[in-house]
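We keep the chain:
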Amino acid sequence: MSFSERKDPLDNFFTPRSIAIVGASSKPGKIGHEIVRNISQYDYKGRVYPVNPTAESILGLKCYMSISDVEDAVDLAVFVAASNILPELVEEACRKGVRNAIIVSGGFKEMGGEGVKYEEQIVSTARKYGMRIIGPNCIGVFDSSTRLDTFFYPRDRMVRPPPGGVSFVTQSGTFGLTFLEWATNSRMGVRRLVSLGNRCDVNELDMVKYLGRDPSTKVIALHLESLTDGRQLVKEAREVSSRKHIVMLKTGRVEKSKAALSHTGAITGSYQVCRSVLKDSGMILVDSFEELFDVSKALEKQPAAKGSNVTIVTNAAGPSVAAADLCHEYGFRIVEYSDGTLKKLRSTLPPYAVLGEYVDLTGSATSEDYQKTLEIILEEPNIDAIICFVVFLNPPITPEVVKVISNVQSLGKPILCWATGGEYSQKLIDKLEEGGVPVYPTTERVIRSLRGLIEAGSPRSWSEPEPVQADRESVAKIIEKASSEGRDMLTELESKDILRAYGVRTTVEYVAKSAVEAGALASKIGFPIVMKVLSPDITHKSDVGGVVTDIRSPQEASEAFDEIVGNVRRSRPEARLDGVIVENQLPRGVEVLVGATVDRDFGPVVAFGLGGIFVEAFRDVSYGLAPLSESDALKVICRTNVARMLSGFRGFGPADLKGLSNILMRVSHLAYEQPIVEMDLNPVIVTSKDCTVADARMRIKV
């Protein structure tokens, strides 16, 4: 984008006609000096105005006592002054008419104390005048088109990468400069870098939207330590990922554990929710900075894979075997060659070539062997991606193999390469990278990058949730009653009444006040039955001996009543006892958990996973952003291991997945609409015919 093409309020961060550096220094080695040097002494073509009240000139540029003294308009101000004077300097810049600022200085919110106040003052002033701010506590921006960078890293220590299609948005300046240096070493072009710092104003939402509109950005790499608004990020990512790829690394994953009254609360950690929800946002989630870079490189250089059918060509047996293991582990399919292809390979290749799960040309391989092999196997129509393993040090291999591998790209299928070694190998690796083939030095890195290409090529779709019919008036009365009594925990009876009001199928239950009444109610329901303690003070009933199952006669029901009451009186003598629930015992099925919680970053989310007593032990739980459509609810279910049991497993027929998806959908609307902070439906019994909630507990906001 040229200076004359600016249209967006954020454009001046990347294409300013003029820049003022407030806090510029005449002393080499100082941050304020190096920023002036990097902006003014290299490729940026705009006007540069150092601001320092004690210097006449810096690096041959006239110095100004204040930004107000600059004769011309200033498009962008870069601040490197002390935090305690910055509120005044920012207001002066605003009065000057500056509408974009980068605050490199630290000493604000990240330090606590007075720094919080300084940052709040700056934000208040910026909003008053309509100024947009990146930072504070950041390294600013890099733009490969205008060659603007606000870094304080000297050019003789850090080489800037050439133009390309990846834009990187990060909260870490160190990650930022590392990404750019790795890009340079990998012959990968970069479009833009944005170091967000404290995000006092411009945040990841602004940048995802902005870069989503940028035609020169092909891939958005995103690193965040926290989320400004997780729900809004999902919305923006779904819109942008329909046009370009977003690769995200979330750090800051570990939080102090907090006690929770329900199982759902106990298994909910912010990153666990974050990863599960963002998996369905169109973003490609990665687990490390290395993987963030590797996947971004693969997507910048190669097309996305149209499927997960993979083939391998190698002269490195050990790394290839490890790669095949990982392919199977990740669910990729290593293509079985057709009889015709195998016949061609056998008739064409030397006898030392091993044709097994893939083509191992062995250490005797020549560049011609690679060429013949690739020409033959790529006639197979169902290959979606190719991985080449090359040991360049083997004497039979010539540098011509670089051209052979690079030429595969003309077929439009992604190709990745494994190679490693010293000076000789690195020269050939560099040529491969320059030719557009991403090269990785370990098996794990190449296969994880392939996983990114496959995920990028996977179809993405989301459906808008439709309103559900519900007796919301009855729900409001139940919640109001509990609130008026000072309770945040609803009883099982109240919880199930709310579920039924939202159309969720539950057991049939009555409340017995005596052993005789328990026997009569059991006969009314029909055997077998389950009996449970009913108390607003007891959440986990089985822990106090408050549950008896498989009751098959009125006499057993009466005895169970006395047993439950006795157990509770001994275990929790202070607990209020409102009676004993008598309900029908459900037939054998798969026990699952359906729940909901209010996440710090995403608000109301629903949970699904393995239920019963093992929910916290196995932690097989997936989350979805409430409210869900029925089709998106099914996606949440299918992300768990228990989904395999539901499809038919060891005597269990295929489960009623449609009914289960409907329950999860209805629960998501309930969680979104009502002041429920925790909901735990465990177990929900799933059979081939239906799904029924056997136990339920809810906690409301009071």
Summary: The chain has 23 helices and 32 strands. Residues 257-268 have pLDDT under 50 and may be disordered.
